[in-house]
Amino acid sequence: MNYEIREMLPKDETRVMEIFQQGIDSGIATFDTELPNVEVWNTSFINDCRWVLENENSEVIG
Fold first, then answer.
1. pTM of this prediction?
2. What is the CA radius of gyration of the chain?
3. C-beta neighbour count of 40 within 10 angstroms
4. If I label 17, which of 1, 38, 46, 62 is the partner at 20 to 30 A Cα–Cα?
C-alpha cells in the first residue's frame, strides 16, 4: 500500500475535522471535549505546518 504525506488543502477540512473528532471521542489524542468549527480551528491552530496522509486512493486517512 502506498501513502503520501502532503500539505493540507481547504478541500481536506471536512475529513480532517472527522479525524479530529475521532481523537476527541477516544480521549487519547486531545484534551478538547468538543469539535470546534472550521473558523475556530483556523484561528486556534498553527497554519504553517498542516499535513495530511493520503492512501493510494487519494483519501485522507490521517
1. 0.85
2. 12
3. 11
4. 1
Q: How far is CA 46 from CA 1, 2, 9, 39, 40, in A?
A: 30, 28, 14, 13, 12
CB 55 within 8 A of CB 5: no
Q: Tell me which H or E stretch contains 20.
A: helix 13-26
- Confirm if 4 and 52 have CB atoms less than 8 A apart: no
Cell digits of residue 43:
484561528
> Would you say how long the chain is, in residues?
62
Residues 13-29 have pLDDT tens digits of 999 999 999 999 999 98
DSSP annotation of 57: T
